[in-house]
Amino acid sequence: MSAIRGERRAEAGIAEGGGCREPAHAVNEVFGLLGKRWNGLLIAALMAGPGHFAELRRSVPGISERMLSDRLSELAEAGLVTREVHNGPPLRVSYRLTEAGEGLRPALAELTRWAEAHLVGGDRCPRIDT
């Protein structure tokens, strides 16, 4: 096995000999954050550009106002989303991806391609362009 392939297998949590091992800390962290219900969908919605609270709520069907507020706060605390207050009248708040949030674009585009190819109903996945 080449050194590069071995490194990739190790990064993915695959032990020599084909067995599994505990995933890398970074993998646990990213899936802990993005795998939480609504977070990935909110990031995908913000890939199209900044959005106001009501726009985000409409773009993620089924999310409650309370959950949207909680998830946006969590994503802001993680450094992926920033909250911007626009003085009115009326006072408006918008959310946008930070540089770190935008850095997820290639990964989400790859996940979208994978879902379209491998998941039943994958053609309904929102398109994230690179």
From TrEMBL:
Keyword Transcription regulation: yes
PROSITE patterns: HTH_HXLR (PS51118)
Record bears the keyword Transcription: yes
GO molecular function: DNA binding
Domain of life: Bacteria
Keyword annotations: DNA-binding, Transcription, Transcription regulation
Domain HTH hxlR-type: 20-123
Descriptive protein name: Transcriptional regulator
